[in-house]
Input
Amino acid sequence: MSSETVSSEAGGNQAVGSGAGRSGAASAGPGSAGGSRGSRAVVPPGERGATRIADRVVAKIAARVAREALGELPEAAASPHATVAVHHGTVRIRVHLELGYPTDIGARCGRVRRHVMERVGALVDMEVPEVAVHVERLHPATAHGVAQGRT
Output
């Protein structure tokens, strides 16, 4: 089937046949830039552009990494969530989490802080100079068979 038949069957309003009305890149096959394969210019990596990761994506990554660092959580505890501030290749992170009690709160927060700094920095290729960990709630461990509350 020729390109004329395909274009007219598709119902397009474009000119058909020789590719009139289209750019050379659109009418040329994949991997070619206007004709011969050898004439394609290679753009140096520094001039290709940049990949920008949305702040909300960095926040989701930080929350998931914090969850990794915590290990097992109490049954009623919510998953960690994070907020971030990204500025010129650096990201400052605030992680909000809930912990079981009794626990060594300082040690667990330190472990989360270090893990988030290392993993988020590696995953998004940004500097992470600050990770603030906020413990929003402690969930007391209850012994089986012990009544809760005052008697």
About this structure: The longest strand covers residues 127-140. Confidence is low (pLDDT under 50) at residues 1-29, 31-35. Strands lie at 81-87, 90-101, 127-140.
